[in-house]
Amino acid sequence: MDMLAGLLSGLPNFLIYFATSIAFVLIFKFIYVRITPYDEWSLIKDDKSVTAAVALGGAFLGYCLAIAGAAQNSVNIIDFMVWGVIAMVAQFIAFAIVRFLLLKELTKRIENDELPAGIVLAVVSVSIGILNAACLTY
């Protein structure tokens, strides 16, 4: 029984970090779909764009990688939350880099379901997430 109690002693921290992570993902989704000039959900829901699904999936994955790194390396929940916000900003910057520097017609290309544009955005999002997670160590 002592072994079970020892194993479960970390459960409160797990629940706090996991709930905070889910909240961060929901906040990220809420902001991300508003800063993109196209409506991912209607493009995906109406089966109009595989490209929008790939791009949005890459954005989620990239951000989840980053907050996973923040959770793994944080010293407390406040530290995790600060780095979670910083990671979110980095992901938004990644979108801006692709949209304004790499693929100036990104919006139109995603709306036209041009898969290469979505793949580039997804790969940049995941890449930034990996770099972000790696840099969140001290």
TrEMBL record:
This is DUF350 domain-containing protein. It comes from Enterovibrio norvegicus. The keyword Cell membrane applies. It is a multi-pass membrane protein. It is found in: Cell membrane. Keywords: Cell membrane, Membrane, Transmembrane, Transmembrane helix. Belongs to the UPF0719 family. PANTHER family: UPF0719 INNER MEMBRANE PROTEIN YJFL (PTHR40043). The keyword S-adenosyl-L-methionine does not apply. The chain crosses the membrane at residues 14-32, 52-71, 77-103, 115-134. Pfam families: DUF350 (PF03994).
